[in-house]
Write a structure and sequence with these properties.
It contains 16 helices and twelve strands. By secondary structure, it is an alpha/beta fold. The longest helix is centred in the middle third of the chain and has 22 residues.
Length: 412
Amino acid sequence: MIERPEYVSKLIAYKDTDFIKVITGVRRCGKSTLLKLFANHLTRHGVGQDRIITINYESLLSSDLRDPKLLHEYVGEKVEAANGEPLYVFIDEAQEIEQWAYVMNSLKATFPVDLYVTGSNSKLFAGEDLTYITGRYIELRMYPLSFKEFVAFRGLRSDDECSSQNTPPVSYEKALNDYLSQGSFPAVALSPNQELVQAITQGLIDSIVMRDVVQRGRIDNDASFQRVAQFVFGAVGSEISANKIANTLKSAGYSVTANTVDRYLNLLCDAFVLYKCQRYDIRGKERLRFNGKYYVVDTGLRNAFLGERPRDFGHVLENVVYMELLRRDYEVTVGRIGAKEIDFVAVNGTEKVYVQVASTLVEVAVQEREFSALLAVRDAYPKYVVSMDEIDYSRDGIRHLNIVPFLLGAPL
């Protein structure tokens, strides 16, 4: 297993607290592996294997433990055998248990356990069931690989490592192209050839989209759902609404209502396939309720649905920057200031940054468009333009960043 230290360090910080740790994210992003990495950390620091209980509801071996009473009995037996030593309990895909929050709260209240659960659907946090653990859980949001993790999975050394070993610097051009086109799922990053990447990506579509969305959402019209998914995947970075999608599909001969489209979009968001980025009025300092933009969790999934589209490369780049900001724990909105738009207003506590994204700034007209929107904002928070250009276009207090160092973790 390859380490993912950013996530493991968060679990270490949460360890032995009285909260239930809930790890959420799209299926196959690495949640189960994260639990294994954390278990390895525990064993390296003196926790015996008999004190680590792992229950994976994707395994037939755990099927009986979907019954809450049997699960309680099983954990109780392990607690008794531990002779008073606290246990670490890992429960994978907790949404497979009916009234999961009630059951987890009961385990925590009954036994001396440090409890960690994973889930692949945001419905974990909906409904009355959640009231049982309100204020008693910490959510750790997990995503497919960052570009920094992707190059580590591919075995590329950092520039600092190259300098210390007196070896030529690494070229990230191919890795970036692969990251943008093939995607960021761990299995893809570890694949040795394009044929296997395509097979893995199709498997991801089958397990994530067709299983977690179509089957769980009880969608009975696959054709209309796929048309909606193709539309929104193709429109990343553009303002859209359920009405707009429904009207466009109707003009193409597909009968689908705005309410149905809205339901499909919500199901895709629930499964962490899509993320909705709301609009924010910078002058009025309020969120705008209508429209918004959608971004897909992984550009490889998008390309598998649509085929690669060189003409909308800028939107793909925007999608990747959006996901990177989420990984850095920013809350992200689309900024509006008068008639101008700022791609991202990113806030983390008292920290705020403004980010514009462009494929290239070579044309003067593009520079004017990207920089003028940021110059219209009259506060002192940092402002950035991110692009593929290696020439530094920074000016007027606005920093230009090349996409590669930004994705490799250059601080904002």
